[in-house]
Design a protein that fits this description.
HipA-like_C; binds zinc ion; alpha+beta; protein serine/threonine kinase activity; about 10% strand; HipA-like C-terminal domain-containing protein; kinase
Amino acid sequence: MEDKICLGCLAANKKLRNNYCSKCIKELFNGNVPNPLNFDRIEFTKKRAELSPRMSISGVQDKISLTFEKKDLIPTASNGKYILKPITNGDGHIQNEKDIVANEHLSMLISKSIFKIPTASCGLIRFSDGELAYITKRFDYDEETNLKYDQEDFAGIMGITPVTHGENYKYDACSYLDCAKMIKQHVATSIVSQEDFFKRIILNYLICNGDAHLKNFSLYSKADSNEYFLTPSYDLLNTRFHINEKYGDMAIDLLDDYTETYEAYGYYTYDDFKTFAKYIDLPEIRFNKIIKFIEDSYLEVKDLIDKSFLSPKAKEFYKESYKDRMKRLRIK
Ligand SMILES: [Zn+2]
């Protein structure tokens, strides 16, 4: 099956090879042109069960590790450089599960191509029966030496565990402001990283990702260095389309205390993000620039949503919810 748009970047392109443009073949697949997967979702589930005791990828969503064998990406228990996530079987907790793959792909692309936030390389790939799955390239190792980077998520960095903070530890233990303080403490290029982190938080708000919890942010250092950086973003999703969230708009509180406007409205607005920016020493001119950028880039976001593989209903929801969040930020 040949699509008319690239399954990596969603650009319309006539010269696709196995559904990918040359840029995506280079960036996502290191120059290999992958065949469609030679197994389907049923076989995926079987393989996952076989491999899972030895798998080291954390998280609850069904996923397996893949590695290239010539032009085929095949499941592997160790040293896989790709992670494959199909649509979930839906155990009753998730709505609209058929859109979850396209949702993650779109959300990651908004982050990467429009907001220019460092973001894991990703794309869509077809199972043997044509169904789409989400594929992402691992970023926690050196592509030349194969050495694994030293990586730690924010729960680990802060020593926050179920034992110290209870079962909701990923959500309840601290604020995004505390995370920003950690970045200031550990990242050498902290002025750049603070702005990067601010953009990530405001983007999660715009795309209604209510699951940007402590384990979805990490720092890493390259093999031959003691300098830490924020890893590329991963696991971005408009969760609101799939779950009726009961814990509010964001996975983690933005600030240590609620502002007067938050108390008045019951949700985050322009004032909260402005306060957040002030507390992390983001210059006002940079803050204003980011707000202006969000306003200016909406048409591009809308265009990408329209090009995505979401269902018509999901596209409408994504646009509406994004616009709604812009309104809360006083952006037209
Ligand atoms: Zn492409």
